[in-house]
Write a structure and sequence with these properties.
single chain; 184 residues; alpha+beta; Aminopeptidase; 6 helices
């Protein structure tokens, strides 16, 4: 079944959104997204200053899917080609766990779009990728992200001290998780 999943990039649809494959023509969209310091504030990525810097991000998203190690969708408004964010699993192990990541242009914050996207991605992870546990690491201070996760049933498992090493600095991270067969 796993080989079928990776034979063609899966498109997910929600009421207001299409979750689509991120392609080369999304280059300007990625730059707009990751060139905003408000979007990258709690992210392990430097705010982009030149459009060509988006190529590294695009290449990483595409390589994760090609290598069957992760899957990252572009978030597009229904019927549009431009992406306003990204969402997906940075890595996963079938039958075990996956690490969730997401971002959205700030013009679209507080409209329920991440909640809507996450609902579709979580369902895909549990049903198609056969993941048992979905994890999300959230940098302290990223309250909006924490609220979305709690709303969707994720549990805060605590603070992981110096968990992330990025840009030669250590960062604490709050660990959230959602289990496929959660009894709570």
């Amino acid at each position: 079944m796993e080989s079928d999943i990776f034979s063609k990039f899966p498109i997910l649809k929600t009421n207001r959104l299409d979750l689509i494959e991120i392609q080369q023509f999304h280059f300007p969209d990625l730059f707009k997204l990751f060139g905003d310091k408000d979007v990258t504030q709690y992210y392990n990525i430097k705010t982009l200053t030149e459009e060509n810097e988006a190529q590294k991000i695009l290449d990483w998203f595409q390589a994760r899917f090609k290598d069957k190690l992760g899957i990252r969708w572009g978030i597009a408004l229904k019927g549009k080609n431009e992406i306003i964010g990204t969402i997906g699993f940075n890595n996963f192990t079938k039958g075990h766990r996956a690490n969730l990541g997401y971002d959205l242009q700030k013009d679209y914050w507080n409209q329920g779009l991440i909640t809507e996207s996450l609902t579709a991605v979580i369902k895909y992870g549990f049903e198609k990728l056969e993941i048992n546990r979905i994890e999300a690491e959230v940098m302290p201070g990223n309250i909006n992200s924490e609220k979305v996760l709690v709303k969707l049933g994720f549990k805060n498992e605590g603070l992981l001290r110096d968990w992330m090493l990025w840009d030669e600095k250590h960062y604490d991270m709050n660990m959230y998780s959602l289990l496929r067969n959660s009894k709570e």
